[in-house]
Give the backbone structure.
Amino acid sequence: MKFFISVDMEGISGIVDGTMVSRKQGDYERGRKLMAFDTNACIEGILDSYPKAEITVSDAHGGMNNIDPTDLDKRAVLVRGSPKPQSQMAGIDSSYDACMFVGYHAKKGTLEGVMSHTYSGGNIESLHVNGMEVGETGLNARIAAHHGVPLAFLAGDVATTKEAKEVNPGIVTVAVKDAIGRMSAKCLHPEVAREEIRKGAANAARLKLKPMAFKAPVELLIRFTDARRADAAAFIPTTERVDGKTIRLVAPDMIVAYHGFIAAVLCGTAVS
């Protein structure tokens, strides 16, 4: 059995604000340790169910080089660094039996979503895929589905577990914190959170789920936080300007659409 784990940071147990998720902040080292601990709990859970499983971990936060390789369970392979094809889902292909998301957060604007944003908080106001607004959970679940891989497990805050259930009601979720506000939450003790993640991942690994269904072609509506960012992204060939802050991109499949979205984000960042 093969499992793919994508790990973001804002949904990690105990993390509630930017002091733990940015290299420029003083508590970042503590944050990356917590990130590795939650990831290891997921790895341990998978191996509880399948001791010989092959596991790939993709660091999916910021520059995607947050997890210290020496902190990660040595039974997993780590994909790190950026930019790279498939971004937060780099390394996934059709050989995997299931994927799991750890440390994920809700889409931008979500009520009671800890550090909620959509991919690039300063850049992206919203993202719609074939008419449905999605965050990183929905977007990346579609990347997995492109390869025929189901999303089986997610750990994050309460709001994100609800978002994940909309993607696939049958998946296992673990809420490690419950938002009080965007930068505050009631948090499980990290050791308790890890126990829950381990049990949840073990149960999820045994599920027989189908990947989410969606149809090609793929239409993206990418709405930026201001018009100047949309100005820059509109230079991407095949895009169409919808209004002052929104571009439209139509792609033959989800991978091409995803890479178009990443290119748009990079264009928006360049003029920030």
